[in-house]
């Protein structure tokens, strides 16, 4: 298995991470807005939070791909 990725692959991963970070922040804002309304739909908020957690997991996977393994 090759250990190095091309510049093109690295740029694609960084672009995806950027997009996911934006979506994560947008979900944060949407959840906060729904909670401030007072009469919020708890199921909708749970779905948004679940999506947010999924995005965070995906961001961690991508980050691990971009960060080289260092053998101590």
Radius of gyration from the CA trace?
Answer: 17 Å
Count the DSSP helices.
Answer: 2
Q: Which outline best applies?
A: elongated
Termini Cα gap: 21 Å
Overall pLDDT score: 89
Overall strand count: 0
Helix proportion: over 70%
The chain-level structural class is mainly alpha
Largest sheet: none
| Domain module count | 1
Q: Which blocks of ≥5 consecutive residues have pLDDT under 50? A: none
Oligomer: single chain
- Report the sheet-strand fraction: under 5%
Secondary-structure element pattern, one letter each: HH
Descriptive account of the structure:
- The structure is a single chain.
- The protein has 72 residues and is an all-alpha fold.
- It has one domain.
- Helix content is 78%, strand content 0%.
- The chain has two helices and no strands.
- The two termini are 21 Å apart.
């Amino acid at each position: 298995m090759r250990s190095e990725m091309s510049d093109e692959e690295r740029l694609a991963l960084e672009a995806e991470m950027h997009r996911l970070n934006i979506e994560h922040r947008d979900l944060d804002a949407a959840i906060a807005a729904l909670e401030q309304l007072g009469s919020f739909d708890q199921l909708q908020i749970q779905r948004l939070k679940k999506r947010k957690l999924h995005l965070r997991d995906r961001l961690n996977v991508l980050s691990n791909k971009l960060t080289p393994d260092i053998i101590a």
